[in-house]
Records
---
Amino acid sequence: MAEAKCIEAGPVSTGAVSHRPIFAVGAVLLGAFLANFDSRLFTIGLPDLKGALGLSFDEGAWLSTAATASQIMIAPAVAWLATAFGLRRVLGIPSLVYALVSLAIPLVRDFNVLLILSVVHGLLLGTFVPATLMIILRNLPTRWWLPAIALYSIRVGFSLNSGISVVGFYVDHGGWQWLYWQDIIIGPLLGLFVYLGTPRENVNYELLEDADWGGMLLLGLGLAMIYAGLDQANRLNWFESGTIVALLSAGAFLTLCFFINETIVRRPWAHANVLFSRNVGLALAVILLYTLTSLSNSSLAPNFLVAVGQLRPEQTGPLFLTYAILPMLVLVPLSVFLMRRFDARVVLVIGLVAFAAAGLLGTQVTHDWSLGDFVPMVLLQSVGQSFTLTPIVVLALSNADPTRSTAFAAYIQVMRLGGAEIGISLMATWLRVREQIHSNFLGQHIVNGSIDVNQMLAKMSEHLAGHGGAVTPARALGLLSTIVQREANTLAYIDGFWLTVWFAIAALALVALIGPSPQGPLSPRSGSS
């Protein structure tokens, strides 16, 4: 326990055990799933949203950035706010306001009003996941922790793989407005579960007297600006844009100021010494690598089917629903069963190996791959999602002091949201650069006019002769260019899958360095008793 005792940054955070734990678990389930689910729906449904509201490409891009940046700004501070004001106020009230904002957004046509509402929507949404983690640590009996953490963790895989089908259903049958209006039902239900499942808590005025508001503001604004810079970087050509340079520089400066602030204030909100425990620091690093290797599931496979396979997202939805979501109904309980009897590191290794194997399968893709060819890969990704994030969170919690969970929860949110955006931006840049490189290499053969190229152009010209002799050569060359671009995209995605394999290998190396966790409520012997 020596290592756990050293992590004592941030206020003491304890709560009464819920008298209705089933409603507390329901709140965890709804809150955690709602945050990831809504973010995923917004990403997939953004083209339909832009078309319905008449938004330009730039307006749609900034709307997406604002909606997520506001989540990142509030998320690290939620655990402290829950400690100070109580979970009912921090989670219950925002869930009701969230429903009202979700009702209003589809009715707005002015972009500035829409942008403001999207920021408010993101701020409220950003409270759900951190607050539900606090419900687990503060209000659930310890025997409930492991299954509740599994529900908290698996929200990622569930929302990533089910969002495609849900967007397709809404757009085809109910209208794009239901991307928001579903929360008119879910929001109040979440508020009811929070009210029934969490005990009433008084405001902690002693904690408020020494509140580190400056530290919370510095970290929140710093991370939000870094996110905005990364999110817009590919569109604005990275450091060629003054906007990107300003956002990233200012965000990095504010984040640095936060760490300095935490060393000098009398009662720091989230002191960085939570990172100085070897096991906790390694676990947080593995969370980052998990978000990167899971891009094979969240980004590469579905985007390949759209970019190269020329399929609509709703056409790919059944693949992920059948072979990613349904297996989780068995795999998640199995992962909980294994963690009750074996070290969480063993389960984590199984998940990371599954992700590495899925990435290796992805390196074999060709432009001829159809939905059926992705089934083995998606099944392996389902194993990875079910066996990876839950043991990482368990390892981190097992090595941290639960009564000091506010600082720990802040850094969990930094890695959860920051890691995801770093991964998305990194992969988008990697694919763009690799596609350009492969396109250049393939294009050189066309410019040189090799025998094979000339023969292919002749065959295409013969096939297109019925469209008019004068334009046949130009049409043939255009068709050949399309083929080159398709193959360059395919090769770029292969490179992307290789990248996820190396991320999985790096994560496995870090897991090998994590030492045994101290005995506690999440250890195998305690969990199985």
---
Amino acid sequence: MTQSLSQVEIEPLLDLYLETEFTFRPVGPVAAALSLLERAEQDFVLDWIRRIATTHITLAFDFAKRAPDLIERFDQRVIEAWAVHLCDTYDRAGMYAALEVAGQVGNFMQQREGHAAGALFEDIAPVLGNFVHGLSGRKLKLEQGDAAWTDGERICLPAIIAALAGRSDNFKLAKAMVAFQWAQTRFGTLRPALQAICATHADPARALRQFHGLETLRLTARLGRELPGLHREMQRLSQQLEPPIEPAWLELAAPLLTPEATVEDSLALLDAAYALPDFPARCYQGELRSDAVAAARAARLDKEKARLRVKLADLAEEARRHKPENPDKPDAREHFEVDTEDQEGRLDFEITLDGAPIAPPDDVKQLLPSVHLDFGQIPPEYLVPAGDGEYDPSLYEDQPADPDAVWQGTYHEVGALFYPEWDLGRQHYRKNWCVMREKEVKPVHDDFPRLTLSKHAALVKNLRKSFEAMRDENRLLKRQTQGDEIDLDALVEALADSRDGREMSDRLFMHMHRAERNIAVAFMVDMSGSTRGWINEAEREALILLCEALEKLGDRYAIYGFSGITRKRCELFRIKTFGEPYTEEVRARIAGIAPQEYTRMGFAIRHLSKLLNEVEARTRILVTLSDGRPDDYFDAYRGPYGIEDTRMALLEARRSGIHPFCITIDKDARDYLPHMYGAARYVILDDVSQLPGKVADIYRWLTR
């Protein structure tokens, strides 16, 4: 067993981590307390002091003082979860909020003694997100919150669910919570005006809780029919955590357990339930927040009515173009009807126009369930096509925030996407750390594309030929059961097997196979300020040449530029999306690529990885064109922090099946690119003028 560190050995480490030369922290008493721990415990505490100090020294010193007591009382995984929570709070809300979390560590630990086996939101969210998306009804977002609840558009879960001893059971409890919140949206709980209804009672909050209890019994029975396996787990978990429901409640709620029961039946029983003792809450039911439900519904109704009526007007116009004119009814108004089938928990809609069934587009398919959930039907007035100019598009279309306007005056994050960032010192992600917006590259309609094609005319001709050859190249398949020629190697092996008494293989042929390409490629172009001049021109020329060649090949490709200045202003510039054809407008955007700010890379890799994974392709490639290492403005991102975040983003991309590659002109790139990309995943060009010709050759090599 390794000997524990003494106070004398610990003090210099604390001096280093806590910068006592400048902060004058009294580390002697802390070192004395830590010297009494086992060596493994000392290593754990010192490591976390160092990690937290990279976030803020005050928080690290506070943790150091509390650590001996925490080590004695709690599992190390619990302490680690609290330490990460402490740093996340500082990231999100600042020092005051973080110190408040530190001061409440006892309550945190007591409430979360099961953390070691708890289900963490960040771990379970991807799985449960897919689970809820597979259920019928409105598409619900899964978000982290202070409790389990829903407003009808999102489901919130707490950061940690740790009510049970086992990690598996805690995950099942989280799944039950999600299913129950979904059931509230799907089976009508959120449809009535709950605030007004409960306001008729002396204690509206208690009336809401009793109504929630009635609905808990109704929906639990409904889930028993829709999801019987999960229902059995819900009952088992409830039996472990809560006392049985009183007979008076079961007797009152008996009508709610039938398949025909609706939310109106629960409302009819509310007065009787109000007279009963408080309903004993079930572990999976969460909270019913009528104010949040009403706010979300109010914002949704008018917008969805306008959106559906406008979409129906588009469908009617499309049908009109394909229908012969009827001189007897020149002004006939189209009549839409919707038949709804609600069976086994699934909502299916059949839409007809003047009695003839039509296939609605995806956006209409998404609107119909949402409207039905709000009303229990599709109201007739929703099925009247909108007249010309009846609605202002701003009333029903989501209006993205102007990505430039948000920087004027007080900064706010409306309309942004958020991405995590790997903190090297903390050895954990900073959640929702990078504030990212997509922007359009302002097109420049000049002669740059034409001049580029003229300047590199011979190269363009060769590229087109070589890419056409790639499109048409064949592959020789050996050891086939049938083919054009004998596979001599396979035949020799088969004859040898026959002589040895083994069965002779029938895979003795070979034939040429036309290789079908199924590739999607995203080009990530460095638009940092350091690309000014020849580098920027070479990048633009390379993209023009590459696009000309790729059009011959037929691969799906997208082009985005990236830049940023601090984590609060991470910008991705749309040049060409995957679904966009290569047009004069795209050429003008390439011509408009201009240097911006700094080279914060992690967010761009994560966002483009997300876009790539939304494309159906057998092979997905992410190619970065850059002139230097990750960097940002007076920021920790400079140096090892930025390199490690970029490396982690690339690892995430590779785990999702994406193949990253980097093309750079930074002569010092050998110091960091092998660590970030790995061997044979990058190329360094000695001369920027080589870029236009080399990038196409590299693409051929990558996609063979």
---
Amino acid sequence: MADPKPVTSIRQPKTARNVILVTTAMLSFISFWRASAIVLCDLASTAYYIGGIAEQAIGKAAPWFILGVMLFSYTVRALYIESCSMFTRGGVYRVVKEAMGGTLAKLSVSALMFDYVLTGPISAVSAGQYLVGLLNTLLPRAHIHWHLPPNLFAVCFAIAITLYFWWENVKGIEESSDKALKIMAVTTVMAVIMIVWSSLTLWKHGFHLPPFTPHFSDEAWGWLKGFHNSIRPLGLLGITMAFGHSLLAMSGEESLAQVYREMEAPKLKNLERTGFIIFLYSMLLTSLVSFFAVMIIPDNVRISQYADNLISGLTMFLVGPNWAKLCFQAFVVFVGFLILAGAVNTAIVGSNGVLNRVGEDGVLPEFLRKPHPRFGTSSRLINLTVGLQILTLILCRGDVYVLGEAYAFGVIWSFVFKAMAVLVLRYKDKRQREWKVPGNITVGGVEIPLGLAAIFTVLFGTACVNLLTKRVATISGSIFTLIFFTVFELSEKVNARKHALLTQGLSHDGHIDKVNMGRIDVLRPEDCSLEKKNRILVAVRDPKNLAHLRKILHETDPDMTDVIVMSSKIAKGLYLEGDLTHSTPEEDILFTQIISVAEDVGHTVIPMLVPSNDPFYAMARVAYDIQAQQLVVGKSEKYPPEIQMEQIAVAWGAVRPADGQPLTIRIIWDGSEFREEIA
């Protein structure tokens, strides 16, 4: 308990506290180019390992099925666009919960966590395999007769990378959109060189397209191995099996929903642009590289030597001098390290976000969400995820194929739950959609979503076949999902009563964001990162009355104007008691609502809490200190707008010197507005 702090007298500056959100991306919004880069750091990383994994399972036909997965991925992306247009936080958990209830939502997020736990290890191990492959190529040329064991080196390297990003995330230095954009810029250069050089090689040496008929390995049949003689390779079951073994190329789609809330306005239009950019990039990189590898690398060495570092192997069979190919191979490995390491970080960030989202609904024990005492991050959730990733690295022993097979479980089942939920919401939630998955017909006044139904059928059929053909994925994924689901169920029962009391009567979806508070003793614009020409102060009090904030965000240009949102912590006497650097449950709820409004619109806000025994004076004092041009409030329940305006004007007169700045005061309610400018 901190010592009581006296509430400052009416003629002195107040003490303000800047509220910092722990569980989301801190209310800074990004362009669709940066959003695309963040998602591609996860999605495009699969280009480095999917070719080898798929070919080991289904033979030289792998590129055709990877191409099919890339084409189908655009339909899955449409599911995310529709769900995000309905819910700003439109990830699997939220959508499934709205459609089918909390039980299936917890089951879906349990499968999704299996996806995130494996994303980091498969990316880190793949990066290690590429690096050790390059070293084993270069060392003999330097007359160093060492041969590094690939799997052992990959595991040690992967653990080091994972621990590095664990510490970065504990400190709160998450992967920024700027870094992601730079990584994708370098990757684009590599991709263009690869496509041009590979095309030149094929033009000079000639080429034959890969066969379409898959040839399944014994492992790829799974529990169907005893029936493989009676199943036609090109029958529906055979095509579905091959499609399922290539589905890993589509991992990373959930990142699109996670990044949507950080996307700047116009949010939906930017989401559509992001989806199209991702589609083009993945088609040109992931699918083309797999074709080039099969057509250029000789069959006798492709899988035996380069299954785990296929792109690196491709560079060694291009036309041209050896020194040029070695230089390009080094560049490929460098780019691979960047993008695969970025995927490791994205996995930690994504899993942390998902677990926090579940925790906000009261599903996780509160002690797991307790902020780090120094950095303010949800370090215990990060520790949990990274601990599971390191355990996975030790168990897999550097085998990328085993990781890929297991990884497919979380990918496909999270998609199945997502598709089912969006389909159910078409009938359960009748509100107008801003965007719909195409392929809808109306019969007798009833809309039939054929497009959605087709997507769900393909995903569900593939998931069921995968259960029978991917033994590693089925066993490990089922155990992991069951354990996580049990933890979610038990902890939710413990937290249920407390959470229900906190969220009773709220207009949002029931989640509560955790906030940290950093104290500012003297309020100055630079302390709040106010850098724009115009400033608007919005005063809020009631979490169910934020219509004035929403109106301001919609009409304000975020490039020209800072929007500061303040609430007063009211003292009943001369002192504020308690530790003021920690928020109360009521303040958490209020700032959760503020954050939700800002995310919906796509406009940055700067929240703060101001201790005071006079809320009108607190508004005027803050408006003067930050040099705001406008002060906006909602309509008071106690006073008519005229009296409310008079009280604010009196407080402004007490704060502003005779030659000080003018202020426009706006009172907004129910589509009405009362405005006055005070010189």
---
Amino acid sequence: MQGFVIKKLATDELFVSCAGNLEPYLIDELKELGIVQVRRGHRGVIVPKSIDNVYSINYCSRIATRVLWPLIRFPCPHRDALYTASRAIDWKLYFPSPESTLAIDANADNHPSLRNSHFAALVVKDAVCDGLRDARGWRPSIDLENPDVQLNLFIHQGIATLYIDTSGKPLFKRGYRKQTGEAPLQESLAAAVLRIAGYHPESDRLCDPFCGSGTLLIEGAMMATHTPAGFFRKNFGFAAMPEFNEAKWKAFRARADQKRIPLPKEKIIGADGSPASIAMTRAHLEATGFIDSIETLCRPIERINISFTPSIIVCNPPYGKRLETSSSLYRHLGEFTKGYPEARTFFLASDERMAKSALLPCHEKISCMNGGLPVRLYNMAPRKTADHR
């Protein structure tokens, strides 16, 4: 390794990740946040690197899952190059005390010299620990659950980029969820589904007849009240960065929070046939402060009698253990929506046969991912009223 020279490449852009196929919607959202220079990447988008963008996206984006800040980018032909480049970073700036903790995720598949992603992560770990040991006399501890510093390594076509994750925990973990059901809908996907459905909080009345733990209801309420996506989170990864300025962050957060408005009643309603699901929903509504504004009913869909006429129905029906069980739920959903012929209807399904059981005309199918599982969003809205932003 002695005399080995690392050729550093430009690192002036952030990578903002999202679930697959949601890139166009994330691009539109970031432009609405005032970030003009945005271009599409693979499972994410690329924006200019600035701490202001880090604050804005982490706190306000409803669709993003992580905001990655590049530390170094370089040609990586072998293990020695990866170690040398990683060791060259001044890790004292990121690990101020012996109690500081570290985690590393790596994606280095198909690299000719590095055996696998796990091995690549170990190389970076050794470089970080060796550098801190020489500079400070101690090594950071590994904490895979809640590290102070989360690093992400990507090696693609021989080019390695080492990022610090400015989000910490993924951004779909909003901070209000107390418990989850068997197949929870990720909050970022729920927000994207509402956006794709053309949900207009000012004028729409939203109904979710399969509300589960209340994710769609709460995401809709946060949109309606201009509540930032990160409002209920306590921690972000950028607090460990040397670029972090606590006074500026608090000022930004205060400006965003000042835009919040109350949620009127009879704007959002949810129902579910499971008492346990309704209990979860109500616990989450209590945690977010929406308990008095959102009505919830513990009734199966064939017996729902809601107090107002919805203009939009959006839901994620449960996937039964047997296809016949799920098919009956979708059939009941179809019958339910026919009672509100003016409402736009969107639902998620993992199987084409389940969707067809609703016996509704489908105008569009949008592929997406929920926690790594492929699902489709089915648009049953009349063409003249559908708004696909």
